[in-house]
Here is the input.
Amino acid sequence: MKRVIVPFFIPHQGCPHQCVFCDQRAISGKSAPLTEGEIVETVGRWRAFSASRSVEVAFYGGTFTSLPINLQERLLAPLQPMLRKGEVSSLRVSTRPDALDMERVSFLRDRGVELVELGVQSMDDAVLRMAGRGHLAAHCEEAFSLLKCAGMKVGAQLMPGLPGDTSAGAISSLRRLLPLGPDLLRIYPAIVLKGTELATLYAAGRYTPLTIDGAVSICKVMLHDAAVAGVRVIRVGLHHSEEFAAGGEVVAGPYHPAFRQLSEGERWHDLLTLVCADFSAGDELEVSVSPARVSDLVGQKRFNLRRIEDRIRVRFRRVRGEASLGLDEIVVSCGSMTVRDNILKRLRYDGSMNVNKEQP
Ligand code: SF4
Here is the structure.
C-alpha cells in the first residue's frame, strides 16, 4: 500500500548559496518559518485522511543539515513521540551534498530520519560551478558514502539542461551517479523561474534552456538507465502546482504538465521501432503490453504509432492491454509470426541518446 508523505517546506532556509536556477519561494509558495504547533497540527490533519496507510514526514526546500542544530532539533522533536507510537513511520529531509558529515548524519539517524535527498543536479564540476552550487561532484560521492555507511537511504535530484550542460553531459552525470546506489531519483530539467539568476541570464541572451523535445530526449535515456539499474524515479519534471497555473512563475524552459508521460512514451516508441524492424512493410500488427503501458506505447494522439507507420510502413491493427504481461514486456504479432520482448533487456542508449542497435 502506498504511503502518505506529509511535506513541510523550509524555503531556502540554511542555504549557504543562491543557486542560479532556484527560487524556493516560487516553488513552495510559502516562506513563513514553521512552528512546532504547525507541525503537530499538520501531521494530525494528514493522518486523519491517511486511512491505514503509513505516514512519512518530509522536510523539503532548503538545506536542512545547514540549519542551526537547535532549529533542526526543534523541527524533528515534535515528531519523536509520533515515531515512537507508530503514528509516523519515518522521516526524510533534503539537503546539499556538502552539508553532511558524520556528526550530522548520526544526529539525523538518531532522530528517525531514514532517507536523505541530495540536490546533486550534475556530476560535472564545470556545470556545478556555473550553477552557483558551491560544491563539487566529489562532495556527492562523499555524501553517499557517509549516508550508506550509516545505513540510511539516499535520494538524488538531477537537473539536466543547466548552463554549460550538454545532453551527453547530463546522461553521463546519471551514469556516474547510479553506481553510488541511489534509492530513488528525481529528474527536474532546468526551468527558468521568475526572479532567479537564470532568468537574468536568459533575458540577457546568455542562457538557452532546453526545448521540450530536447529535454524529453535526455530524460527518456535517464529514465531508461534508472529502470535498467532498478532505481525508482519518483518525479520527472516540476510538479504542476496551482502556484504555477495561477502565478505564471515559469519564464521559459521545458515545462509540460505531462512531461513524464512524454519521456516514457519516447522509450516505448524506441522499443516498438526496434521490434517492428523484424516485420515487413505492409504487415498488419497486433501489439500487446501491460494495461498500464498502453498510453505510453501509443503516445498522445497515436503519435508513436503514426511515426512508425510512416517510417517503417507497417500498419497497427490493434494495440491492447494484456493483464498477464509484465510492466516491461511487449508482444507483437502478425499472422503466424510473434515477437516477445522486454524493454529493459532489448533497449540500450549510447551516451549521445542514440538507440544502440546491438543486443545488450
Ligand atoms: S537549490 Fe537548494 S541549495 Fe540551492 S538555493 Fe535552492 S534550496 Fe538552496
In short: The longest strand covers residues 113-121. Residues 212-229 form the longest helix (18 residues). Residues 186 and 235 are 5 Å apart (CA to CA). Confidence is low (pLDDT under 50) at residues 242-247.
